[in-house]
Amino acid sequence: MNPPSQKPNSSASRKEINYQRILREMESLGKLGHWEINLTNTSVHWSDGVFAILEMEPSDMPVSLELGYHSVHPDDREKAKQHLEDVLTKGIPYNLECRLVTAKGNIKYIHSQAEVIRDEKGVAIQIAGIFQDITEKTESIFHLKQQEIRLSSILQSEPECVKVVSPDGILIEMNPAGLSMIEADSSEEAIGQKVESLIEPADLKFYQTIHENALKGIKSSARFRIIGMKGTERWMESTAVPLTDQTGNIVSVLSLTRDISEKVTNEEKLIRIKRNQEALINGTSDLIWSIDTNFCLVAANKSFLDVLSYLQQVPAKEGDNVLVKTAGEEFYYKWKEYYERGLSGESFTTYENFISPITNEEEHREVYFNPIRNVDEKITGLACFSKDISILIKKSKELLLNEKRFRALVENGTDVVMILNPRGQGKYVSPSITKVMGYTEEEALQLSLFDVIHPDDTPKLKKRLFEVLALPLGASLQSETFRAKHKDGSWRIVESTLTNMLSDETIGGIVDNFHDVTDRETQMEAIQMQNQKLRNIAWTQSHVVRSPLARIMGIIELIRTRSLTKEEEERSLGYLLDSANELDDVIGDIVRKSQEVIPPEFNVKP
Questions:
Q1: CB of 170 within 8 A of CB of 193?
Q2: 3-state secondary structure of 543
Q3: Mean pLDDT of residues grouped by 10 in the chain (606 residues)?
Q4: Is 477:498 a contact under the CB 8 Å cutoff?
Q5: Strands 171-174 and 161-165, how do they pair?
Q6: Is residue 453 helix, strand or coil?
Q7: Which of 436-465 are b and which e, b meaning 16 or more Cβ less than 10 Å from the residue's Cβ?
């Protein structure tokens, strides 16, 4: 409430007025207000400073404890009531921070301190205290905390290493990304350690340079390798700047470091690729070059420079005009036309066949022309590539000749070549199929092996198709014979060899080589039957032969004893002659029967 007016002639009144004026000024400057509560009659007094904080006019309404509580923010009201109750009942100091809602609806933060006045019995009779508007301070602290939270969040989520290092190289602070880079399991493991202990010794001078520059107030960057706490080597790129205190003195070094291991690896890879490319383009007989719109050489490999040097009869270099007349006008105008076509925007290929002036040998070349455009699609030059295809042309001619020979062999051979899928369906058949089995190539490819194989041989064929799939690429099964149906309806005996070529991209199937062995099998069967008949004849006649032979052997043994008289010897010789004649008759009979068994074509003529 405003102080009552005082008579100006009163010295004490003037002092009081001055004190009140000073108090108002102090309250205004300090954003303060003092208040009192008379607990005896619950009357309340607010100074002008309190009304100013609450954005009220002192005359607007009577001041009461209820009005005071009503001015407290609803969320803080219970806290304010409880605090006052604790002050009165528990004797704790009155010290409260809370929010007030002003008459204009604004929210202000205040800090209130008060003293409880008690009577001689210790009963609280009055509370006198002050308000201080700390809104700006609170909001500033809040904003600082928010900034600190944001900065902390940024640092915690920053994918690069952020660290603070003391002037003597001790790690003071590092974010999680940095801890991960140096392979520290926790910040305690890294903080307080010398950063230099993590640097690859060969690169230590680079790190020391940027650290020393930062201590001199100079921002600088460098690349170096680190060895993590678990032994992993990484390439790092670090930028160091000085950190100063309020007086401007440099107190530490702030570094932003990123892992560039992949970048360095890619750079090294690009260097290798570039060197390899240079080695490749300079080590080939192909000609590679590019020109600008004035037909001047921009870049070329060694092979082209050698050719251009020969044509212009002086060493070639970048900037030389590639149109030279030393090779003749026809050559000059032909190549001029090629270059003009390319520089007009056409991409094309041409073929050149000529006698090389350098080697005096025939050369075949395939030449490519492609326009070079800038970002605005404007043609700025021409890229040219001349490939030597002389060997390719020669090989193509040889291949064509070999193909004709192979075709002739396949068409006129007695073997049939088929390429089958795993189900026995034909993908290719050689022309000799017509000679061997009577079918055309088209007819054969419409049939499956199971359509022509004798039903009794089907299980054997299925087993072989299964077995060949288990073989490695290029391996074959042993030859096997099957009965196959000729187009004329007859059954032919074929000898088949299966080879696994499924994984060969040029064939992609099972190769079946087969030929007709019907005549051979028939002859073999006839021979076996003849051999059996001969064995039967030999077995039968062997008993007939043994009788005269035994007599002959017995008579000879008897004569050798020299115990016979002359007459007995004469008779024995007669018996011997009779047995010999009998044996001759038996042999003649065997020959006659053998001739009846063996057909004329198997008889050996004398």
A1: yes
A2: helix
A3: 48 67 69 87 86 83 82 92 90 92 91 90 88 86 74 67 92 89 91 93 94 94 93 94 89 91 90 80 83 93 88 90 87 92 94 76 89 93 90 77 60 77 88 88 88 91 90 90 91 90 87 85 67 64 67 75 75 76 74 61 41
A4: yes
A5: antiparallel
A6: strand
A7: bbbbeeeebbebebeebbeeebeeebeebb
